[in-house]
Amino acid sequence: MGRNTSMFYDHKIETMSRNDLEALQLARLKWQVNRCYHGSGFYRERFDAAGVLPTDINTLDDIRRVPFVRKEELRDEQAQYPFLGRFTVASETDFREVHPSTGTTGTPVNTIWSATDVQYITTVTARTLWSIGVRPGDVLQNAFAYGLWVAGLAVHYAGAEIGCLVIPIGAALTERQIDYMVGFESTVLIATPSYAIYLAEQLKAHNYNTSDINLRIGCFGGEPGTEVPATRRAIENGLGIEAYDYYGLAEIGPTFASECSQKTGLHWSEDLHLIEVIDPETQEPVPEGEVGILVITHLKRNATPMIRYWTNDLVRLDRSSCPCGRTHARSPEGILGRADDMIVFMGVNFYPMQVEQVVRSFDELSPEYRIRLTHEASTHRDICTISVELEQEKILQEQVPVLRTKIINALRETLGFRPEVEFVDQGDLERTAFKAKRVTEERPAFARKL
Fold first, then answer.
1. How many domains does the chain fold into?
2. What CATH number has the domain bearing residue 282?
3. How far apart are CA 383 and CA 392, in angstroms?
4. Do 142 and 254 lie in a common domain?
């Protein structure tokens, strides 16, 4: 593979022509559909109900005949057939690891990694790390969570395969993160974007500046945000690095898509995953470049393959070759939000990431924010309040009213309505190494678990 000199981890795979890539996808899709139909009661029942046989899959477009799989259906399946359900295809003798989804929006879904799954997940993760510039000899500080919540292990395995020194700290332990970052001169950081920003704040609080650490690059996933320009800028300026976006999810793979050095969007590993972008209303593919729901089919997963998994993540797709030379499709701007994160307020639909972009464009504010939605019974009025932290050393008290007006105007222009803005003291908003919860829904008519 030329791993020590090439800009590609696997030149042949990453630069395949579209025709060759689609031929490989089709061969693997036929194999996957056939084994799922004959080896899984879950899939066979779904295929039969839709009137689809494995022999009906003769082109990539034929995948549209197959039903989508949604997370709640996997939960129901595992509740009826505990603990794994009937969508596990591999033999139990091949099982090596079990990993559940995070369960932040319901009961976790258990997925199995077989021996071959461990290897392919390691390899595709190594490919993503290589694409951002990780090389043998790097000191990789892994602040993704270890254990049942899965991304930490994939990065650990991949770092070792590349030839890095891996520091397996995992999420949290911020004091230890700083000690090792400084003492071991870490060159690569893997974390959530929220935690990366927090680490930058804590480095400053411990009287370190970017010249005191050796970090040069970082990859940040587990939640959207890295490709929001203001968020990327906060990470890069705070840590003195180049920051890249990362994507994965437990049901598909924890770390299987990342940006490259060109920062032109998430590169999809299309030799391993069939990528669709679907209109949530029509259930049909959207034209290239338009926004829709990301739907993924495993082409090589052995133990618990997903066929047309409905991620609920919003993306757009670009199949043109990247300036880096990679030919696989990519999603400019990364994950644009989640369909189930959409907030409805006064007839306007908006996403937390839109608020994030505005808040993090103001140097006078910390990168943290909260959105609180309430209902005032006496006036029958819904209220949207954005809480933000003032960077006290960057603004005088007499400047606060003018700043508030600027923030409100920027939010109104972005969101299409005028929210309330609440200033809180720096440090009042909780930081987390995990997925940050930034929305509180207190309106009775919209009450749901966020």
1. 2
2. 3.40.50.12780
3. 27
4. yes
Tokens of residue 378, six digits: 């006496």
Decide if 265 contacts 259 (C-beta within 8 A). Answer: yes
CATH of the domain at 428: 3.30.300.30
Determine whether 358 is exposed, middle or buried from the number of CB atoms within 10 Å of its CB (0-12, 13-18, 19+). Answer: buried
405 lies in which domain range?
A: 342-446
**Coil vs helix vs strand at 194:** helix
Q: How far apart are CA 33 and CA 36, in angstroms?
A: 5
Burial of 449 (0-12, 13-18, 19+ CB in 10 A): exposed
The answer to pTM > 0.70 is yes
262 and 394 part of one domain: no
State how far the Cα of 439 lies from the Cα of 431, in Å rounded to an integer: 14
CB 257 within 8 A of CB 264: no
The angle at the Cα of 138, spanning 134 to 143, to the nearest 5 degrees, equals: 80
Please give the single-letter amino acid code of residue 324: C
CA dist., res. 28 & res. 7, Å (int): 27
366 and 263 both lie in a single domain: no
In terms of Cβ atoms closer than 10 Å to its own Cβ (0-12, 13-18, 19+), residue 437 is: exposed
Which of 293, 312, 339 is the C-terminal boundary of a domain?
Answer: 339
10-residue stretch averages of pLDDT, the chain, 450 residues long = 71 97 98 98 98 98 97 95 94 94 71 96 98 98 84 95 96 91 97 92 94 97 88 95 96 96 97 97 96 98 98 96 97 91 85 91 93 87 94 83 95 93 92 78 67
> Taking Cα atoms as reference points, which of 171, 180, 138 lies closest to residue 3?
138
One domain for residues 242 and 380 = no
Residues 304 and 382 in one domain: no
| Start-to-end Cα distance in the chain | 44
- Can you tell me the distance from the alpha carbon of 199 to that of 178, in angstroms, rounded to the nearest whole number? 8
Q: Encoding tokens for residue 10?
A: 């696997």
Which of 284, 306, 339 delimits the end of a domain?
A: 339
| Residue whose token pair is 């203001």 | 230
CB atoms within 10 A of CB 19: 8
Judgement on whether residues 128 and 247 belong to the same structural domain of the protein: yes
